[in-house]
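A student in our group prepared the protein record below, which I am reviewing. What it holds is a sequence and that sequence's fold in token form. My question to you is simply how this chain folds and whether the tokens agree. Do not assume that whoever made the record got everything right. I have pasted the whole thing underneath without changing anything:
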Amino acid sequence: MDNLSMLTDLYELSMANGYRQTIPEEEGVFDVFFRKVPDDGSFVICAGLQQVVENLHDFHFDKQDIDYLRSLGLFQDNFLDYLAHFHFDCQVSAIPEGTPVFSREPLLTIRGPLLQAQLFETLILNIMNHQSLIATKARRITYAAGDRPVMEFGARRAQGASSAVYGARAAVIGGCTSTSNVLAAQKFGIPAAGTMAHAWIEAFPDELSAFEKWAEVYPDNAALLVDTYDVLKSGVPNAIKVFKELKQNGHQPVGIRIDSGDITQLARGARKQLDDAGLPEVKITASNALDEHVVMSLLNEGAPLDNFGIGENLITSASSPVLSGVYKLAAVSEGDQLIPKIKVSASREKVTLPGLKQAYRLYHHGTKQAFADVIALKDEKLGDQLDVVKANPLATKRDQFIKDFDAVPLQEAVLDGDNLKADLPDVFAIQAHSKKMLAEIPSATKRLVNPDEFPVYVTHKLDQMQEQLLEKQGK
């Protein structure tokens, strides 16, 4: 793993240096959260925690890093010496990867020396914003596909190698079943999948001989691309000839892929030809600039498709390519006391929630049917009944009374200095957790278009703390 400790914005180092000179013993609490959901959805699938933990655990500065920072002429020697002997002394708690999370909820909280915690902002946001964005897009696409497998194959269109590899990981968290990216497959234990490109067919004298040679080399992995010349007049008929020969020799053909044209009509024609030839088991894969809306349209039209290969619109979340997660100070220490802090803005939506907090998912009592989330101060005890306030400050009816519920905390301790406090499961275990958590939230919340709001509340104690801090600032 590359050392990413220098993946930071200069102002973070400048502030950390300033803390070292002025308030070196002060402790800080920072929250990671987002305000806006991509694609006008209602929630985000959080992802990237494993890479955050790995990088924080390995956070250090090499000699060449220190030499470069010294060359900038900005930092005192005592700060550079601190970095040269850096030891991670923070506590991290986080919502597990794969969990659907909502606006303003603390996905991750980090507590520790202020000058340390400040240094992690860019690194943490870079990892979590990217992977959560792609996991969320993958959830939308796989939701549209229903029970049909979706293969991620966007590496060539990703914005760089790291985005391709970790985007593939996030795509599986969001529901994809495989990836064409061999490095990601190797690194994260994801099934590698793929067929062929048009170049294979073009490299041979004709399409039939290209298919025959492929089947000769890969008799048990004969998935053929049928749209190089003409899907229904040559591609599928030639594939059928090869598939029949494979079956006669004791092999099972896999399927065909259609990568261009009117996929619904071509898939219907291909399905009929395959069925008429006695090959109902042969699968039809669609690709070609698909996204959740195209997938849904194809299936609504009755296209007989068995699976999908999706590239650029998934790996870049092309329709909504930014998750604007933020990293905000929520408290600082004064001696043994933790003092809540707040970011004030002319826009009430941007006012932050102060203090050390915990988010809870609320279920109808005795069920696994979630109906709301509540953000509370960490030391609050939730009783049997709750007077709460909508977290969205623009909501018209903010006060709510809740009873007959079970509350389950979402954040868990992850890292305490050198000590790992929680398991870091493999990517398919995270996917399974995500599916479980998704099954617990209302169907209307999961719609792709005009999803219903899943309420997020704050306790009255937290709301009053925010109001008191606003009043203190004259707002």
Summary: The longest strand covers residues 326-334. The two ends are 46 Å apart (CA to CA). The chain has two domains: 10-134+321-472, 195-289. The CA atoms of residues 28 and 332 lie 4 Å apart.
